[in-house]
Amino acid sequence: MTGIDRRSFLAALGATVASGFYPRRGHALAERPLFVSACFAGDGKSASVAVFSLDGEMLFSTRLPERGHDIAIRPASSDLVVFARRPGNWAAVVDRTSGTVRRVVTAPEGRHFYGHGVFSADGGLLYATENDIAKGDGLLGIYDARNGYARVGEMPSFGIGPHDLAYLPGHRTIVVANGGIRTNPETGREILNRDRMEPSLAIVDPVAGTVLLKVDLGPDLRGLSIRHLAVTPRGETVFGCQFEGDEAEMPPLVGVLMPDGRTRFLDMPEDALDAMKNYVGSVTLDASGRIAAAASPVGNTLAFWDLDAGRFIGRRRMSDVCGIAPAPVEGVFLATSGNAGVRLAPVSGNDLKPLGGTDLARWAWDNHLRAL
């Protein structure tokens, strides 16, 4: 992985910033359910970020110099911030209506992004998970979106290897998934502390820069890296994990941090847990906020839980599935794959209906999918 500055980023885009803009049909943009994800061509090249509609129309695909990871959506703005995959050092600010790259944000020297960020309620500040490369400490970099995304500060993530983060209801505190894994850009994704991992969940006050609560999973689950989050309207945080221990072990992979600080894991049958292959690549909630979904691209599996009943609902097979987002209808998700396109995934049925035609099917979709 090489560092990228704004000039080399724009040069990598080629002659045009947006490699393809597809005019929308019929309905106004704001009235259509839209989704955004990083993606790349089937040959593993031509990394892009794309916005498409629920009826399968690709609105645009904008070239990126390297693969993107997650996308932060700025409130009351057309800005989308696409983060590079870890350990990347760039984030692209893309106009959600045209696909134009408005700005390129780069991490300062000695820092790199972990692929995720979240905006304050008013859209003024962007918080991004970062690594202090020399010390190995987790950070939240703070960027002023009203001032050209200038970096205006940083605060601890109160853990190692922060990955995903999300605001809790009320938009005053942020929950951070500290994966517990120390890495260095010089060695890529190699785990430097496999025997000393420290995964945790931290609830922080971004204004004061303090930690209000920090929860770990105990010594028996030290190898369970907490990676991705989804927050319910009631303040429960669903978290998905990746196990870095003995492959023969099968620890639970999806849990819930309750508002009172207690954690519990979501039960699933042994055969379903085995199908996840110790890896959760993303988690989300349906439109009601009461059904949780987790995707395992390693296990080619989607799994669902009823949070109210604390009950496992079932699983569906989809090759290389990872990106998941709520469809507008309760109990239905949209799922993306690295080799099987985009599909509607209803909890109540066994069939996963392909979405769209060649525009969507020809892309390999990356880890995360967001509803706009």
From TrEMBL:
Superkingdom per UniProt: Bacteria
Gene3D superfamilies: YVTN repeat-like/Quinoprotein amine dehydrogenase
PROSITE patterns: TAT
Family matches, as InterPro entries: Quino_amine_DH_bsu (IPR011044), TAT_signal (IPR006311), UCP028101 (IPR008311), WD40/YVTN_repeat-like_dom_sf (IPR015943)
Protein name per UniProt: DUF1513 domain-containing protein
Organism: Microvirga thermotolerans
Lineage: Bacteria, Pseudomonadati, Pseudomonadota, Alphaproteobacteria, Hyphomicrobiales
